TrEMBL record:
ATP binds at residue 40. It comes from the Bacteria. Residues 11-272 form the Protein kinase domain. This is non-specific serine/threonine protein kinase. Its EC number is 2.7.11.1. The keyword Secreted does not apply.
Amino acid sequence: MQLPQTIDNRYRIVELIGEGGMAQVYRGDDLRLGREVAIKILRPQYANERTFVERFVQEARAMAGFSHPNIVNVFDVGRTGASPYIVMEYVDGIDLRRKLQQEGRLSIGEALEIARQVAEGVGAAHRKGIVHRDIKPGNILIASDGRVKVADFGIARAMADAQHLTEPGVVWGTTAYLSPEQIRGETATPASDVYAIGVLLYEMLTGQTPFQGEDRVAVALKHLNEPPPPLHELNPRVPPGLERLVLRMLSKDPAQRPADANEVARLLRAYQNMGNEATAVTPRIQTPTTPPRQAAAARSAPPPKAAPTSTPDYRTAPVRAEPQRRAEPQPGTPGVDWVGVLLGILAMLAVLGLIPLYALVYRELTSSNLLGWLNDTATVLSIFHTGWL
């Protein structure tokens, strides 16, 4: 497709930076505002489809009024000749597809951070009532400074409204990342985007998508009918808690998944914070008071060696906040000897001349009522003795 060097006397074409079956993407300059931009221009076969173009332009304009740090911002929509184009934020970096091709599976920490930023951006769109419908690695851009941005909102919806552009019976979208309900031809919802983010996270953690097959149909059938292979079988370093979250996101039933990407972002932030707290916070454990008879020995004994400090890697092992443990009694701190107490009471009775009542005491001791009373009393006294009251 031959393009002019400048579009609408404003956007100068610099170089082709990407292309797919639907469009070509160029790096360009906004001569009016003096900034780098990315310009996506539809291929002629799509430019001639009125329904698609109308939806494409409508979705692009909707995104042009929406800005978020984790979404590729849309600046302008127009036409060059017969072909519609979108002017977007230029992201200097690579897409997630290329990163996975170069590196295979990612570290736990990096996968979490990318997924969280994706969920933050998609969640912001969900709050505006916008569903992406086609989240995949090629639509996830990673800037050189580490920022993650989601691109191509609304493209899948435009294609869905122009179904005659696809083969009969073929669902628009990338099958490896499509939710079961989308494969069945149902309307995509925020939970559908959650499923796709779950597939992304699964792939980043294991190096492969959860469902493999010889063709699109085989993969689609697995999405519908088979559970994903456990992550720990492909990467033993995946923590159990994180694995449970990913598998929940991949539930066949949308109602069993997190409701939208905002909930996913919250859960991922919480998981990341667990790792940060584990490296910065030492649980407070109450130390029992040393009995007087042990104080001298404690002062003369050499201080215990401090345990070596290390920074736990929450990327390679499950991070859980250690529960605060109740202080154990120090050696030499006796508990209450209830048998001795009872014998002492009997001895006192004997001294007072009340020993002839032994038969009555014996009968009462063997009755469930008195034993229950003694047990309850022992519990209360034990609580008082340990300082709980």
